[in-house]
């Protein structure tokens, strides 16, 4: 039986998208383009105020897992949802994709399934308000040894380091993979503030060779190396023990491996609809190729192509690629 390409571990969050303008953000006293953590009461209040809500299964690693499935890969997702209506929606939505497995146990009692209320403005920017809920209860018990061994790549979110139990779950998966399989380990740094919160821990993962590949955007990489410029941060990454794939916005991406820096061009975009899911889509295209031992630069090019498609659609997902760019 063929292995899964990727086992993805992350915060299982229902994305609730709503369109708005700067006036709405001002009314709600929200910082544009920022991600704010909110509590259960704030989440319920916000949802009563947002118009035209579109609900889908989400979370960074889940979006990437879904993208891998759309691109023809096989992936398994690990994340904690509650035994509630939003949990039902989450599981049904995610498992409707061919090639994606999700059967993590549910939380009974206590917190609800997590949500991220995302307000998308006309310029494509997203303002995120996240209630983590059941996500906070991902533990080592959710990591199944056989599932770890049955994957070419173990991929996880940096955000999980905000939760000690979830961090321990990831470390368990890493230990299993290193001891019993040839799976490679990949982390996405999630956001620059997350990097600053866990700078020592992330550097330890890199320096102790616990991760083989780091995915980051410009801001995250600069935060990791306390660099004033992206060029300086990239040069620092070239001296690291692991590989890096760094998104550079309209300039494409950098694939950094064995001290060699490959610059990958971005793909043409007719019109940006919104930027939701661009980084997750890049990770999907990249990880599918990486899991199948494609050169990192080629994998990054596939990631750029998939990200270009996502930002020309609404939301973080598409049902299938609309071009023939994907030959993985």
Describe the structure.
This protein is of the alpha/beta class. It has a single domain (4-310), classed as Ribokinase (UDP-N-acetylmuramoyl-L-alanine:D-glutamate ligase). Helices cover 36% and strands 22% of the residues. It is built from twelve helices and 14 strands. Helix 6 links the parallel strand 9 (151-157) and strand 10 (184-188). Helix 9 packs across helix 10 (230-237) and helix 11 packs antiparallel against helix 12. The model has no long low-confidence stretch (mean pLDDT 90).
Kindly estimate the percentage of residues that lie in beta strands according to DSSP: 15-25%
Task: Could you tell me the CATH topology label.
Answer: UDP-N-acetylmuramoyl-L-alanine:D-glutamate ligase
* Radius of gyration, CA atoms, in whole angstroms: 18 Å
Number of continuous helical runs: 12
Low-confidence stretches: none
What is the CATH top level name? Answer: Alpha Beta
Task: Assign the CATH superfamily.
Answer: Ribokinase
Q: What is the overall pLDDT average?
A: 90
* CATH architect. name: 3-Layer(aba) Sandwich
Per the principal axes of the C-alpha atoms, what is the gross shape? globular
Order of helix and strand elements from N to C terminus: EEHEHEHEHEEEHEHEHHEHHEEEHH
Strand segment count? 14
Largest sheet: spatial strand order: 6-5-1-9-10-11-12-13-14
Largest sheet, described in full? 9 strands, mixed
Number of domains: 1
Distance between the termini: 20 Å
| Portion in helices | 25-40%
Which class do the helix and strand fractions yield?
Answer: alpha/beta
């Amino acid at each position: 039986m063929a292995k899964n390409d990727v086992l993805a571990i992350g915060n299982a969050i229902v994305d609730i998208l709503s369109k708005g303008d700067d006036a709405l953000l001002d009314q709600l006293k929200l910082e544009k383009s920022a991600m704010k953590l909110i509590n259960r009461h704030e989440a319920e209040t916000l949802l009563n105020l947002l118009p035209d809500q579109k609900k889908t299964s989400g979370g960074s690693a889940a979006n990437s897992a879904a993208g891998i499935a759309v691109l023809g890969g096989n992936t398994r997702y690990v994340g904690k949802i509650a035994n509630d209506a939003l949990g039902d929606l989450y599981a049904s939505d995610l498992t409707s994709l061919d090639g994606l497995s999700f059967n993590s146990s549910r939380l009974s009692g206590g917190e609800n399934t997590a949500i991220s209320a995302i307000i998308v403005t006309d310029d494509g920017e997203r303002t995120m308000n996240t209630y983590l809920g059941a996500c906070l209860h991902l533990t080592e018990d959710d990591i199944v040894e056989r599932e770890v061994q049955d994957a070419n790549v173990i991929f996880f979110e940096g955000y999980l380091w905000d939760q000690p139990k979830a961090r321990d779950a990831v470390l368990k998966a890493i230990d299993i993979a290193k001891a019993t399989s040839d799976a490679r380990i990949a982390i996405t740094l999630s956001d620059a503030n997350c990097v600053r919160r866990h700078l020592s821990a992330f550097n330890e993962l890199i320096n102790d060779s616990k991760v083989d590949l780091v995915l980051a955007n410009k801001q995250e990489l600069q935060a990791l190396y306390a660099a004033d410029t992206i060029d300086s941060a990239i040069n620092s990454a070239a001296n690291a023990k692991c590989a890096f794939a760094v998104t550079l916005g309209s300039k494409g991406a950098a694939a950094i491996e064995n001290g060699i820096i490959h610059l990958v061009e971005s793909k043409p975009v007719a019109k940006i609809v919104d930027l939701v899911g661009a980084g997750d889509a890049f990770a999907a295209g990249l990880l599918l190729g990486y899991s199948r031992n494609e050169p990192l630069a080629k994998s990054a090019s596939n990631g750029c192509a998939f990200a270009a498609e996502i930002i020309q659609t609404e939301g973080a997902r598409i049902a299938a690629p609309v071009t023939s760019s994907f030959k993985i």
